[in-house]
Amino acid sequence: MARKISFINYKGGVGKTSVIVNLASCLAHRGHRVLLIDLDAQSNASIWLMRLERWNALNSQSEGSVFSIFEPATVHMCDCVQKDVLEDRNGTKLLPGLDMVPTTFRLIDLEHDYQPPAGSPAFLTFRDQIAELEKDYDYILFDCPPNVLRAAQCGLFSSDEIYIPSNPDALSLIGFTLFVEKLGQFQELSASFRRADMGRPAEIQGIFFNSVKANVDIEVPKMRMQFRLNQFRTQKKTGASAKIFNTVIRDAVIVRRAVTLGLPVLLVGQQPAGESVIEDYFSLADELIAPGPAARTNPSPLAGFHS
Ligand SMILES: Nc1ncnc2c1ncn2[C@@H]1O[C@H](COP(=O)(O)OP(=O)(O)O)[C@@H](O)[C@H]1O
Ligand SMILES: [Mg+2]
Question: What is the pLDDT of residues 139-185, one digit of tens each?
C-alpha cells in the first residue's frame, strides 16, 4: 500500500515542485513505484515532466488531467495516469517507475465554478479515486499549491504524511505558521467526512530547507524553525516526532537548467564540478524512506546511480 505524502507550504517559490520532481525521480531510480500527482493549477510539475509540446496537447483536451475526475463524465483517475511519464523526443521511456497524474490550467475551475454534489466535497471524490490506485504504488506524492483551498485539500485529505519545503528565511517561517493554522481548520472541517477505512488524518512529519547557498550559515533560521516546530509539537499540531531533516538541498544552477531541459536533475548528466545537488536529493529520499539514524549514515547516496 502506498505511502501518501503532501508537500506544501503557504509560501510560494520555496521549491516544492523542484523538490518533489527530483525526489520522485530518485525514489523511482531506487526501484520504488512512484505516482506524482500535480495539484497546482500552475502545472509546473506537469510541464516539466511531460515537456511543453505534450502538455500543450493535454491542456487543449477536456480529459486526461486531474480535473477530469470532477467532470460530469466521471473519468477515473487511473485513466489519467501518464505511465513512465519521462520520455525523450522519440518516445523512449527514460525513467520507468515514475508515473504522473498531470494537471492543466483547468484545475483552477475547481476553486470557482465547480459545484460539488451534495454531501460530497471535492476532497472526498478525490480520496475515493486515490483508493483505486494506491495498491499499485509505493509512494503517491502530491505537489500542492501554496494554500489550503480545494485542490490542496484533495492532497491533504488523501495523505498520511505532510512535509514542508522551506527556505532558510523569515517568510518561510511565516508560511509554515500560517499553514499549521489553516491545516487545523481544514482537519476540523473534514473530520466528519473521514470514514474508518481512511485511517487517521495526515500530520506534519517534517520540514526541510531547500535552495541553500554555499557559505550561507542557516543555523539561526534553522533554530527559529526548530523553536516554532517544538511549540507546535507540544500543542499536538504536528506529528509527535516531526523533525527538521538533516538533509539540506543546496542552491544549484543545474536545478533551474533541468526545468528547461524537461528532465529531473539525475537525468541531466554531467554536473559542473562542485555541484552535486543530486546527492542532496538522494539523501532526502533516504531520510524519507527510512527516517532515523540508519538513513542518515548511508555511506553512498549515489549507490547504483549512473548518469
Ligand atoms: N535547489 C535549488 N537550486 C536552485 N534553484 C532552485 C532550487 N530549488 C528551486 N529552485 C528554483 O526556484 C524557483 C521556485 O521553485 P519551485 O520548485 O517552482 O517552487 P514552488 O513549487 O514552491 O513554487 C524555480 O525557478 C526553481 O528553478
Ligand atoms: Mg510549484
Answer: 999 999 999 999 999 999 999 999 999 999 999 999 999 999 999 99
Q: What is the pTM for the complete model shown?
A: 0.94
DSSP string, 138-162: SEEEEE--SS-SHHHHHHHHH-SEE
Whole-number Å distance between alpha carbons of 88 and 50: 10
Distance CA 233, CA 240 (A): 6
Q: Which residues contact 93 (CB under 8 A, 6 or more apart)?
A: 84, 86, 87
User: Ligand 1: which of 10, 211, 213 to mutate, most ligand atoms within 8 Å of CB?
Assistant: 211
Cell numbers found for residue 67: 480535473
Ligand index nearest the alpha carbon of residue 249 = 1
Q: Where are the alpha helices (DSSP H) in 235-276?
A: 253-261
CA distances to 33, 45, 108, 153 from 145, rounded to whole Å, are 24, 11, 11, 10
Closest CA to 245 of 216, 277, 285, 276: 285
Please tell me the distance from the alpha carbon of residue 237 to that of residue 188, in angstroms, as a whole number. 12
Binding site membership of 65 for ligand 1 (Cβ less than 6 Å): no
259 lines ligand 1 (CB under 6 A): yes
Where in the chain are the domains?
3-296
The residue assigned the cell 509560501 is 11
Residue listed under C-alpha cell 475547481: 110
Ligand nearest to the CA of 165: 1
Ligand 1 pocket, 201 CB below 6 A? no
Ligand 1 atom with the smallest distance to the CA of 44 is 18
Could you give the C-alpha distances from 185 to 110, 233, 237, in angstroms and in order? Answer: 20, 17, 11
In which band, very low, low, confident or very high, does the pLDDT at 307 lie, cut at 50, 70 and 90? very low
Judge contact between 227 and 263, C-beta under 8 A.
Answer: no
| Superfamily per CATH, domain 3-296 | P-loop containing nucleotide triphosphate hydrolases (3.40.50.300)
